[in-house]
Amino acid sequence: MPGGKRTRSEGWRKVRALRLEDIRHWWMRRLPVLEWVPAYDWKENLVPDAVSGMMLAVQQVTQGLAFAVLSSVHPVFGLYGSFFPVIIYAIFGMGRHVATGTFALTSLISANAVERLVPSAGTNFTANNNSGVLGLSEFEMQRIGVAAAVSFLGGIIQVAMFMLQLGSATFLLTEPVISAMTTGAATHVVTSQVKYLLGMKMPYISGPLGFFHIYAYIFENIRSVQLEALLLSLLSIVVLVLVKELNEKFQRNIKIVLPIDLVLIIATSAACYYADMEYAYGLEVVGHIPEGLPPPKVPPMNVLSEVVTEAFGVALVGYVASLALAQGSAKKFKYTVDDNQEFLAHGLSNVIPSFFFCIPSAAAMGRTSLLYSTDARTQVACLISSALILVVIYTIGPMLYWLPMCVLASIIIVGLKGMLMQFRDLKKYWNVDKIDWSIWVSTYVFTICFAANVGLLYGVVSTIVTVIFRFSRARTLNLKNMKEVEYKYKTEDNCKSLKQVKIVSVNNPLVFLNARKFQADLTKIIQKDSTSSQTCEDVNKCEQNTLLCSFSNGSCHGESLQPSQSERRVLILDCSGLSLFDYTGASTLLQIYMDCKNRHIDVLLARCKGKYKLTAKFLT
């Protein structure tokens, strides 16, 4: 009896220990900050993170002001949107080099709801009306209320997608679709800023084919262009492009790049103040910037039903653009990102800040590229930028009164350079897969003619339909989809060295549907050599895998080949059965090649058929 009680008590201890371990593991997964903060190397990482944080703060301030205007709200709310979401993502996000904050595409989408529900009445940001919160007018508070409601509902949708585990469905978002959608949306953003570049007064135009109606209005009213605003815009764009190109060219030789955005803001604000350009030339300026942070307030729930369309657009477009940057940084710096956790991180980064009058947020390509170029290590760089933005909100903000709007528009357009340069991707899509090229072009056209969320939906649907059609016509072998042979031989030139060769035969189409699985299974083959032993059970598990059948010299002895320092390893991919692949499949092969290169493994593509020979050259 005592023995039975002892057994039960030990069992309960194991159950409790297991549950505690599961709970701890769950919290570590949901709060990545608990994992990277204790392991943070203060001596090694603090200095580069501090430098990156200071540079990022400059860009966050300028983009915050600009994207708030793009969202049709007062510029000060862009500063709040550059502060709160950064802190939330640093706690819940997994991208170490992802700079969350205000984002051009989500701002453009939320502007549709703002202009529809609180239409403009010819007001501008120079009016200093103390009838509302923060010294702002009731009209401006109504507008930010709508934008905050879009952010709140968009974040709720992202959190719901996290709870439904929809992060695993992101394989449907292929690179051509994301590239075309973001490029088209960037084109929309540039179009929305033309009125500021030209100094024109024009009504807000949106809806289907609104892109073309804007330019039609501009050409009809071309005589109303303000020459002073046009010249200042052209000068600002030339200076921004020239200095940023020089920064990129000499970034290896200089540790700190010139913050040209900040310099331009200070110079043009001072010139506008001393020359009294607002009244002498009628130049539109930012106007009154309130000091301090606002008290929290619940977004207006009565408008949620009217902003559902924009909220879905913010949730999907913001997540897709942010996830692409997170995955890119994870590949570049060799760590992993949980697609589903990113739903939670960006969802909370929209929900919580919406209580502090923030516009919708997401990660931006320009800010993430800045973290790359300044050698940022962790999210500490983003937290440092948030601390500096807080200083701006409480002290420097009111000094931005005289900043010309045309300069802000120039900063927006130059900041979208990375997205607009994605037009160059058309050449590689054409070389790899002309169907992916056609999907890119048609997705871009749909985005231009309608909206970013419509273009994204069209791209996903067209990709699925295309793959179904191509799979039905693809010739596949009635064998295992992947088989592996490995052997050793002594090279003729050096009989003392052994050359270990793996031949992997692929007999299935390699497209976005199975590209991740293909890479995971091939990685298992590569990593098998680094293990000390391999049992027949493991081989049997591989045989049950839909993509992998493993055997060594036709037998299974539970032995693994340990490559010695004198051995050279070669991986040969037999592509004779690879009947088709798209750009995602080609990118996967390229990623496998880079991973093998880091492991000192030579990769060769063999028996490529027809047009895929060109792709093999592209990959190598």
TrEMBL record:
PROSITE patterns: STAS (PS50801). Coiled coil: none annotated. It is found in: Membrane. It comes from Anser cygnoides. Residues 491-620 form the STAS domain. This is Solute carrier family 26 member 7. Gene3D superfamilies: STAS domain. GO terms for cellular component: membrane. Its main location: membrane. The chain crosses the membrane at residues 65-92, 144-164, 170-190, 202-219, 225-244, 256-276, 307-326, 347-366, 378-396, 401-423, 443-469. It is a multi-pass membrane protein. Keywords: Membrane, Transmembrane, Transmembrane helix. InterPro entries: SLC26A/SulP_dom, SLC26A/SulP_fam, STAS_dom, STAS_dom_sf. GO terms for biological process: transmembrane transport. The keyword Transmembrane applies. The keyword NADP does not apply.
